[in-house]
Amino acid sequence: MLMREKLLPLVNALLSPERPASSLFQEVNALLDLLESLGQLPLLPDQDISKGETQTVHGLALSPHAAALCAKDFVRTVQFMRGAYQAVCAQYLKNSARPVTLLYVGCGPYAFLVLPLMLSLKPQQVQIRLIDIHVKSIDSVMRIAEHLGLQPYIAEITTIDAAHYQIESAQKPDIILLEVMQANLEKEPQLALSRHMMQQAPDALLIPEQIRVSLCLLDMDEELSTQSSNDQVNSLEHRRFDLGSILCVDRQSIHTWETIEGRHLPAARLQIPSEVPRGYSPMLLTTITVYQNILLNTYDSGLTCPRRFNADFSAGDYLNFTYQLGANPKLTVEVEPMFTSTNNYHD
């Protein structure tokens, strides 16, 4: 009970609408320290956090230690926790005759985005299913749940590659929480696993509700010289040239991909302007709608910082994007030249 008393004020602070997510660095780290002490994840003697990672047929599964460190991306952590909590509360209000069921895919060693929330909910309100590919992660989560007396909230906890997880027809989740991604949906299996889970539970609420990768022109020197307050970021957005959305992952898009087989999914066809201002470069931006109005915008997270777009193209060219599935998932592009006498692209 003493540990629960330490954890609850931290959880309440993280969920408080009065606290901006960007102000909660200390609370996230304090919560991480407490869960780390309970989970007792064995230390790595050489501090190589990549040891223990697993390369799957759909992308990289981070090692338990690397997954644990993801919590330090604290604004992302707060927004996902708030989104999960609000989604559970909203679903329970719709039907309070039974608990909301939440499937957390790739929970890592602390189930950080969900397990602490149980301190603010009752087992009659929510039942959680936790899956992860790594035995060390599942063992750690079980130790935490036991220390905190959270077993009544856990309907299932399983070590499995999520790509092989089968949802029983009588146990379809109300909410699927899945955060196994990097910026631009590279390397990790977020998209593939989202498809796999939603094909089995098409009526479930997917968190995050939407991941969008876009292409824009921006001046990185100007971006980096500007502090990332909301007002300044909004001001920067007015000085960017949005070239369009490349890929959007949400329930609707996943539904449109149901009949597509093979290793590539269709994405957008965009055109580079015939004239690009000097100093401006094409960059990829990831934006994430966690749940309703809970967002991760540019610079909120390591997931949403601009990334350089590397391709050999000229001003006016068309860019035909696809998304490559498999062990190394990523966006790919085929450049379709627009032949002009003058190249107006200035890098």
UniProtKB/TrEMBL annotation:
Organism of origin: Undibacterium flavidum
Name of the molecule in the record: Phytanoyl-CoA dioxygenase PhyH
Stored InterPro entries: SAM-dependent_MTases_sf
